[in-house]
Each structure stands twice: as C-alpha cells, then as structure tokens.
C-alpha cells in the first residue's frame, strides 16, 4: 500500500515539472513573437530604384549606405546614388541607384574605356570629352542607346581634293579606298575614263584624287586635196618665162576621224577611213627654155663698143629694188648668184656675153630707164652688196 502511495506522489511531481517547463516555453515564445512583431512594426519602409526597377524594402538601417550594403549591393565610384550614401534613412523615402558600366570607344582604331551611367551615345561621348562632327562616321546614331555591345566606333573625317575632269573641289571623307570614296561621292566612271590614283589605295588627309574624263568620238570631215603641178619645157618661151596650160583644181575627200578628248581637250586624232569624193586636176605649166643671143651692133650708135674692151660707169641693183619686178627685160627670173647686167641696148645689145672688171662673166639681159650710154647696172643678191659696190669706173670686155 505504501508503495502505491509513493508511485502516485512521484507521478504528481513529474507532472508538475512538465507543466512548469511548458509554461516557461510558452512565455518565451510569446515574448519572441511580441518582440518580432515590434521589430517588424518599427522598420522603415524604403523604395529602392535600382537601374530602373523599383523594390520596397523594410529596414532598420541607419543610412543609405548601410541599407544598400545590407541588400548586398556593391557601390563603385562611378555609380550614381541619390540621396548620398551618408543620408539617414527616413520612412517612405526613395533611393535611386544607377550602376555604371564600362564602354569601349574606338576612334580611328585607337581604343579607350570609360565608366558611365549614361546610356545614349551622345551623352557618353560628351562625358568622355570626345567631339564628333557631321562628317565623322559613328557606328551608332547619336540619339541611340549603346545597348549590350558597350562599344562605340568612330571614324574621324578629313579633307582632301577631288578633281573630276575640269571641276576641282574640297570634300570630307573618312578613311576608305579610292574606289569606295568615289562611290560615296557619286562619281561614275565611263568606259574610257581613268583615275590617276590606284582604286585600292587608302585615301589620306590632303590627298588629291584625280578623275580624267576620256571621250572618244567619230567625226566625218570633208577636206580638200591639193592638186599636183606638172611642168613641161617649151622652147618657144624665153628662159625663165612660164605659161599655164591647164589650170589646177583641188579635189575633195571625206575622212573619218576617231577623236580622243581628255577633259574636253582633243589629244589625239586618228584617220580611220577616207573616201575620195572628187579627184584633183593636175596643173600643167610650160617653162621657157629659149635663150636670147645677139651679135654686137656695127651701127654708128655702137661705134664706141666696136672695140672689144672699154670703160663704163657701173652701179649695182637687186631683184627687189624699187620698181623692180624680179624678172629681166629678156624674161629671166632673177635669183641669187646669177651674173646679169642691165645695159643700154644701143651700146651693148641684149643677150651679149661680157666680162666686167670686179664682177666676172655676165650676160646683158636687162635694161633700165636710167641706164644710158656707157653705163651698166650689175645684179647682186642683197642691198648690202649693192651699197658695197657703190658707183665706180670698170673695164668691160665683149666676149661674143
């Protein structure tokens, strides 16, 4: 019986201890729940706008920097945070965070890297102090966003000279081949045109690109053909005299030319074919061969020359002297080197062969109004020779 009582007491003691533990645990749980509720209720509500995406965060953080750090957001020196990291957290505030990214900018193949929070090309270039002109070539439009490539390629423009035929102008271009440059400038090359620069050559600043405009045209021209001159000896005419037997007449020929022009100027003219339309008529001329001969007159008027030798007053003249025709009284055409004297035919008949002192053998083939009596005029080739001869007394000898 005593054992039974003892067991009951033990059971009751154990039950009381269990009830005590459960009560303590319940109290702790209640306090924890209350504390959690109080902790949650006392948090500040903050909106974080990260790269355009908003998220509401409840926090006990003291500053903006603490909040971002607690959210695992690493801030670099290039990022933009508003308000600043040292700003105290206030319930209901909004924090804006723009994360910077690395953008590669290539200018004529030379690369540089920049960190930026800007997205538009023009803003990124402005931030990097890179100026572009309307002539420069940019891989993206200035108002476009860089996108995922994170790269901007720029080709800087430069000036060079373009000569197109006779037109010369200054133009802008970026680095490219001559062929592409001409295409960009709207220059079309015709069949015979040529470019003085190699088409595969890469253009450079201050280059001179020259296009020569070559044109080949066919032209038919009607031209005259000179007539030939045929001479025939005529013994009935005095030597030196000529007589036209048949008048010459020019012919006509149609010639086809291939004409090459460079920049509008004719540089080559080649006959491709010709057709005679009218044949020329040959001019026939009779040339006199008759030589005048005469014997010395034995009349009283020439008594002074009955002897073979005598003295005369001699002057000189030329074929082009004043009033001279260049043809002697006997029909001889005077030319340099001929030995001819003008005489008074009543003293020395025309055709007489003579020797003149200081002049040599000659023929009396001319006369003149001023040549009277024992006077002669010797023919010389120039005015200087005539002036040198002057007026002098010379001995003359009749040879026939």
Automatic annotation (TrEMBL):
CDD domains: 3D_containing_proteins (cd14667). Keywords: Membrane, Signal, Transmembrane, Transmembrane helix. Pfam families: 3D (PF06725), DUF348 (PF03990), G5 (PF07501). Residues 211-291 form the G5 domain. The chain crosses the membrane at residues 21-41. One of its GO terms (biological process) is peptidoglycan turnover. InterPro entries: 3D_dom, 3D_YorM, DUF348, G5_dom, Resuscitation_pf_RpfB, RlpA-like_sf. One of its GO terms (cellular component) is outer membrane. GO terms for molecular function: hydrolase activity, hydrolyzing O-glycosyl compounds. This is G5 domain-containing protein. It comes from Ureibacillus sinduriensis BLB-1 = JCM 15800.
